[in-house]
Design a protein that fits this description.
Layout (H helix, E strand, L loop, with lengths): L11 H5 L2 H19 L6 H24 L10 H23 L12 H81 L5 H15 L10 H18 L4 E7 L12 H14 L6 E10 L2 E8 L12 H14 L5 E6 L5 E8 L6
Helix pairs in contact: 2-3, 3-4, 3-5, 4-5, 5-6, 5-9, 6-7, 7-8, 8-9
Length: 360
């Protein structure tokens, strides 16, 4: 399953010396150093530098034990280890600073009351601030991780929903192909059984039509112009079969020809009009197709003068039921299909879809 890329958490030195935490450590320790340096006997700069060094050591301890060791005992939480090590790093860093700053031959800093007082002050203030800062950083990390996981789950769920819709749309589209082909072949078989001299010509026309139509049955994107070409070829084929009982006209605004149209959608309406409207009528009838654009919508009308609406076990039939589902999935519920009787006889099917340009 493809997952949307979410920024991976940095590792190693990139995490240990990351600019956000480095900036936070410098700001916090620098602010504390400024406060200490203003009254520091050894000078403002000395107090500031010592405070910043202790802050950076605490930051390194926090980042080091964030990654090492890779495995911890079940009884030890990593966040507790990080806070504990930050607390230990404070006196260790202060001790190192005072040892390093002791002049050669001078007594150890713990034997100098003033220097020992400075060491104690840095240690106590560091212990009062650094562990809480580490806890605040951990809480912020957990919140960021929770948001990242929520985003990843939302993206993955959206991807799965899209794949499920695509699969369902492919299934519905696959149902259209045999439904249409079986109906058309049944018409040819009826001509052959009746010994009609037009059977051979109709069969040749059917073969030519299917060569053009079948490759498009499984296309996901199709223009209304391409759909109208198939409808025109289908009606010409049906007219060859019943020339004295079928007339038709196709009128479409040029601005609608490049619009997106689910494959076989308009053809389903026309085939339904022929099969359920014109064929059962002794007098035959006429099919009129009009397509126009109206303020961001495309309105398609297929009307016939056949026998009209009749009760059947299948309701509107498999073709129209499947078409409704395909339209709902293709346009996210923004398409409408209405089928109504028209006077004095016949049926009118109106398809109202968003006027979206087809993707090339």
């Amino acid at each position: 399953m493809p997952a949307f890329p979410v920024s991976d958490k940095p590792r190693g030195l990139a995490l240990l010396l990351g600019w956000p935490r480095l900036r936070f450590s410098l700001m916090l320790s620098g602010t504390l150093g400024l406060m200490i340096g203003l009254g520091w006997d050894s000078g403002f700069f000395a107090g500031l530098v010592r405070s910043v060094i202790i802050g950076l050591v605490a930051m390194l301890a926090f980042g080091l034990f964030e990654q090492w060791p890779r495995r911890l005992p079940s009884w030890l939480a990593r966040w507790a280890l990080q806070v504990l090590c930050v607390a230990i790093a404070i006196p260790v860093a202060a001790y190192g600073i005072y040892v390093a700053s002791t002049a050669d031959g001078a007594p150890p800093f713990w034997k100098d009351s003033d220097r020992m007082g400075g060491f104690a002050m840095f240690t106590i203030m560091g212990l009062l601030i650094a562990p809480w800062a580490a806890l605040a950083a951990l809480v912020r990390q957990k919140e960021a991780l929770a948001r990242e996981q929520a985003l990843r789950f939302d993206l993955d769920r959206s991807e799965l929903e899209r794949q499920a819709l695509d699969a369902r749309l492919h299934l519905l589209q696959a149902q259209v192909a045999p439904h249409f082909l079986f109906n058309t072949l049944a018409n040819v078989q009826a001509l052959v059984d009746a010994g009609s001299p037009r059977a051979a010509a109709v069969l040749r026309s059917l073969v030519a039509y299917l060569r053009a139509a079948v490759p498009r049955l499984h296309e996901q994107a199709m223009t209304l112009g391409q759909e109208l070409q198939l409808v025109q070829a289908y009606l010409e084929l049906m007219h060859m079969r019943i020339p004295d009982r079928l007339q038709f006209s196709v009128q479409a605004e040029p601005s609608t020809l490049g619009l997106h149209c689910p494959p076989m959608s308009l053809l389903t309406l026309v085939e339904n009009a022929v099969r359920h409207g014109i064929d059962p009528s002794e007098e035959g009838g006429r099919i009129d197709i009009t397509v126009h654009r109206d303020e961001g919508r495309c309105r398609i009308r297929v009307s016939d003068t056949g026998v009209g609406l009749r009760e059947s076990a299948d309701g509107l039939g498999t073709g129209l039921w499947t078409l409704r589902e395909r339209l709902r999935l293709s346009f996210d519920g923004a398409a409408q299909l209405r089928v109504m009787a028209q006077m004095p006889r016949g049926v009118c099917a109106e398809l109202d879809i968003p006027a979206r340009e087809a993707q090339r």
